[in-house]
Every structure is written in C-alpha cells, then in structure tokens.
Fold Inositol-1-monophosphatase.
Amino acid sequence: MTTDIITEEELNEIYTFAVQLGKDAGKLLLDAAQLRYAGSQAAALQVEEKDSAVDIVTKTDEDVEAFIKTSIEAKYPHHKFIGEETYSKGASRSYMISDTTPTWCVDPLDGTVNYTHLFPMFCVSIAFIVAGKPIIGIIYAPFLNQLFTSCRGRGAWLNETQQLPLMRNPIPPMPANAPSGCVFACEWGKDRKDRPDGNLYRKVESFMNMAAEMGGRGGKGGMVHGIRSLGSATMDLAYTAMGGVDIWWEGGCWEWDVAAGIAILQEAGGLVTTANPPEDPETAEIEEVRLGSRLYLAIRPAGPSQTESGREGQERTVREVWRRVRELDYERPGA
Amino acid sequence: MTTDIITEEELNEIYTFAVQLGKDAGKLLLDAAQLRYAGSQAAALQVEEKDSAVDIVTKTDEDVEAFIKTSIEAKYPHHKFIGEETYSKGASRSYMISDTTPTWCVDPLDGTVNYTHLFPMFCVSIAFIVAGKPIIGIIYAPFLNQLFTSCRGRGAWLNETQQLPLMRNPIPPMPANAPSGCVFACEWGKDRKDRPDGNLYRKVESFMNMAAEMGGRGGKGGMVHGIRSLGSATMDLAYTAMGGVDIWWEGGCWEWDVAAGIAILQEAGGLVTTANPPEDPETAEIEEVRLGSRLYLAIRPAGPSQTESGREGQERTVREVWRRVRELDYERPGA
C-alpha cells in the first residue's frame, strides 16, 4: 500500500482520530500521575529496572500503550502497530517500520525519568507512517497542557490554534554566525560508561565545542546562545518545530521517540538529518533522516535572509554543527 | 525594622498584593511575546547586547520592571526595591539587600535567552525580604501558565491549588544512593571562556562526575537519574520546590534570580546552601544560604526514611554533591 491509496478524506479522518487518541492517552498519563501525589501510597507507581538504572519503565507506560494499541486495532485493523513496550518485549531488535503497510509508531510515555519524578517534560507521542514517512504527528504533554499536532499538507500546530513555528511574520532566518545565537538542545542520555572516547565523553566534548567562545577549542567553539536538556527527545523535537530550540542533536533514540516529532518538525518547515558528521562535512550531501538510524540532527524552520534561502541557512547550520560534534556509536540491526 | 513589626494580617495583605502583581507582570511578558509572533515586524523585540552575546536584555524586561516598581512604590512607599535592571544601570555592584528595611527583590524576566527564542522557560520572579530573609516568593511562567507562590507559614503552591512538593503522601525520602536516582538540574551559564580550569571547565567536570556510572571517574561517578538544563535559575528552583528536580547546583546567579525561588523552596521544605564544597565536605557545617553569595546548591523537600530524617537525607545529599563538584569562581563585592 502506498500513500496514494489513502485519500485526503481518509487522511482527515485518521488525523482527527489521532488527535483525540493523543488527548485521551495524555489524560491517562496525567490521571495516573495525580493519583500519586493526591494520595495513597498504595497508588504509588511500580517502577522496575530495565536496561540500566536510568531506563525505567512503569506500569502506566504499559497500560497507556495497551489503550492506544487497542483503540487503533479497533478502528484500523489493517494498519500495523509498533510501540516501545511491544518492541522491548519482542524477540527482534531490527527495524520494523513497513514500507508497504500504513504503520502507527507510538511512545505511550516519552520522558519516563521525568514522569517518575514529576518533572513536567513527559508526553505521549503518536505517529502515522505511510511508505516509510511519518505524515501525522501527535505529541501531548499533559502536565504542561501542550498539544503539538501535524498532518501532511495541513500545517503543524500548538494546541490546535497556534501555527508552528510561532514566530512566522516573518519566520526568522538562521543566525548569520550559527551555531552562535542558537538555542542548542541535547541530552546526556543513558550511556554513562566511564570509557575513554565512549559515547558519554564524545557527547560532552561535542557539547563543550558548541558552548565555548567563538575561536576557542581550536576553532571549534560555537558560542551557542544557550544549552538546554529536557530529558525528552520528543519534547526537544516539538520545541524545535515551535522555534524555541534552533538545533537538536542526539544519538540513541528509537523511532517511537522521534517519529511524531519528525512529522511535526518537517510539516513546520524544519530539517532533520543524521547526527554523525560525514567525512567531508563542508560538501557532503545533507541526507534525509532515516527514521530507524538512532542518530538525529534537527534544525528549526527558517526563513530567508537577504543572502540565502531558509533551506540554505538550515544546511549551513547543519555543516557548522557537524564540524563541532563527534561521531556517536549507536547502532541497530535492520535500519 | 524587623519581621516582628509586620503583623500576620499585614503579611497576608502583602502576599495577596504580590500574587496579583506576579500575575499582571507575567501577562505583560506574554502579551509582548505574542505581539512578536502574531504579527508585525515593527513589533519585533529590540535586543541589545549587554555583557556578552549570551546576556541579552530586552525592552520588555525594562518595561515590566518599571511596572512592578511603580506598583510597589504606590502601595508600599517605605519599602525598598531592587531589580535586575535598576542594578545593572546603577553605579554600585555591591550587595544591596537591607537587613533593616523590608525589601522587594525582583527579576522582571528570568530566562531572557529563552524569552528571545520563545523557549517556554521564562518567568517573572518577585520576592519580599524581611530582615535579610525572603519570606514571600512569586514565580509566574506565563507561557506554561505555571504560578508558584509562597508566604512564610502559609505553604508553597502551584497555581494556588496544589501544595508543594507535589508528592506529599508521603513526601519521598532522598534516594539511599543519592545523587544516584536524582534529577540533577544545572546550567551552562554565560561564562564560556576557553580557559583551562575556568568556570566552564569546572562546571563540565562537575556535570560529568554527577553523570558518570557509579564507581567511575575515580569514585566520583554519581549516576544521576537525569541531567536537566532549563536556562532559568528561577524555574530550576521552582521545580526543585515542586519535587521534579532533586538537586540544583549553580554559580553566577544574582539575588533577584533566586530570592523568590529560595522563599518557595524553603517554605516547601527544601534545603539551600552554597555550591562550593568546604574544605572537609564530609563533616563541615551545612551553612544557611547567603542570598548574595552567587553560589547555590538546592535540595528538594524530603521525607524521612526508616533510617534517617528528611533533613538528614538532604544533608547527606549535599555532602555527596560537594564530593563531586569543583569550586566555582564567582564573586561579588559586599556579600
């Protein structure tokens, strides 16, 4: 099945369904959170260790995924479903997005660490993928009451009323000295091994390059305007689509962490490519993001300046980031 | 004048006034932000460079401070007023909080970088200080519609209805292996000099120690649950009072960045002391925070465990943080 087979009318219907599903799932997350602080110790969340102390999974996570999966199967029995929990419990770790069957790719709870601590940056993330491309994205952060939605050709929206990016009259160009002047979002992640040149050290070296004064660090200093870490790849992408984040660079996510965010960001006019710098960052082609690559570099929507188009400004920024970051070591089978 | 001279009834009245002032000021911030994305380029914010490219000040900042100052002077002409903008333009850089006159300490816009980019973490911060101690705190983040308020003896609140910390039945103890299991908030700040052993390098070394696996980094690895950077000291403190952040460690803030947050955190049951480790972190007295010290370490409200009181757990956490962080070099005259 290809995109062509879904009519615009069907797409409208799927979009409406997905938005409501996101709202309902987010409400379940918030209700479960409120049970914890409203009340009884008995309602306290059951937290069990997964891959590491940082990667926690909650019963709520599983319950909300089951709710979303059941709802989709009832409405669209022929669509495929991929969720974080089903994946974790499955035998295969290979890339499972179908090129031929419309697929829902869902993270019932992104930012599980945040959720456990009641740090506000947690959300549900629902993407609808056709021919390998996410064309509907729904992100709902219920504690913040922020709903991000998009459908191909219909724009990207905050709370269904404010089109993204927020600043759009006009959409600002990328700063002339980017990454200087940019808000840079990055995450420390779960790989905390104290291994020379491991992911933790490569990440921090990259963060340092982006942060340090222009001309510092052997010419790699990027003097970004600010460095932000929210603990949620999904919220990082949503805020990049909004324009509040200019650059997001990350490795180690899975497709359910990013599929909805990529849909929203692309519909808003953003660019997404790979985190790892190619051999020649100055001239290499800027490849289209691969959903299952686990390596992502996102640039916010950008308008033209007097000397370049918005896309040219985004691509220039990509190359300036690549020049300052290290290659990260995250792989997956089948991608 | 000392605290005793303000009656409980007067304090109630001042608190009511301060809450409304925070709401009104936050609305001004949001209105100005919305002008930018709703519309005309003419309404675009005038941004001028201050100390560095990272330290921007906006016209909104000055307008909102003038509004707050005028409102306070009209209502309480005998109180003293200190705001970021008045300070920046004044001749003295010395500590100006009075021990004898009730003082309002105000940041009209904390998170100016965020505000400029429309990254949601910006807020107004209003503290009322008596005998050198902040006893009323108001923080309002209008984009997130999050209002944090406290008055000594009256509890700390989110949106006037949810008491802080949010998880309070019971309030969780500090994790047994803290900082492991903790959400750690920290900021990269404005000092980005590429200077060996300068603040940037000392901060990042400290962040690395907090992040790395337990036993790593020569025994300093803290394996915190997550590292968060919001770009607003005020929001960091508000979320620590809420319980969403367990530990906040920072140098370089000024008293208007932290006064309201300290009032709210202390009223919620949190602990605030100095960022810089004393000579013997394991046994040194845990000193009370000095408002003008520019060095802060905050621990969330904590309940008792089976083996220690909440305060004991907080103090144990302070010592574990001190063991892992470097001394920062921020000074001020007069503190």
